[in-house]
Design the sequence.
């Protein structure tokens, strides 16, 4: 092989190696970008589950004034679960009283989505209602 051909082969191999390296970097950048997005969604869902559980605990422990036959209560929180009247997340508890049971759902909504992030059904025995 002549000296000119070996230099040309070296440049072609170097160029191909650089192209492969750039391709791998682009693929890894997309993968890490997608994982960041998934991480944000997972954190939001985890916070929604925690907020729903906290609201269900409040509801079942009697911290809501359950004098009406049915009700709908809404609370708002930031994405980091801090109470805020203008927060991104809203917690809604809807209940109905049927005989000696309270049945309801706790739903956590994100202002940026139409469907609830998380819904938790609940029920509580409250005993006979005296007239």
Sequence:
């Amino acid at each position: 092989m002549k000296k000119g051909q070996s230099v040309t082969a070296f440049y072609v191999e170097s160029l191909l190696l650089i192209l492969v390296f750039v391709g791998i970097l682009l693929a890894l950048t997309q993968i890490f970008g997608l994982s960041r997005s998934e991480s944000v969604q997972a954190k939001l869902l985890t916070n929604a589950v925690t907020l729903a559980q906290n609201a269900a605990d409040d509801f079942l422990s009697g911290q809501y004034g359950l004098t009406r036959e049915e009700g709908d209560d809404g609370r708002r929180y930031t994405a980091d679960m801090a109470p805020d009247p203008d927060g991104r997340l809203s917690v809604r508890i809807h209940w109905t009283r049927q005989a000696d049971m309270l049945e309801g759902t706790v739903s956590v909504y994100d202002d940026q989505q139409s469907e609830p992030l998380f819904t938790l059904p609940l029920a509580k025995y409250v005993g006979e209602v005296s007239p």
About this structure: The CA atoms of residues 61 and 124 lie 9 Å apart. The longest strand covers residues 89-98.
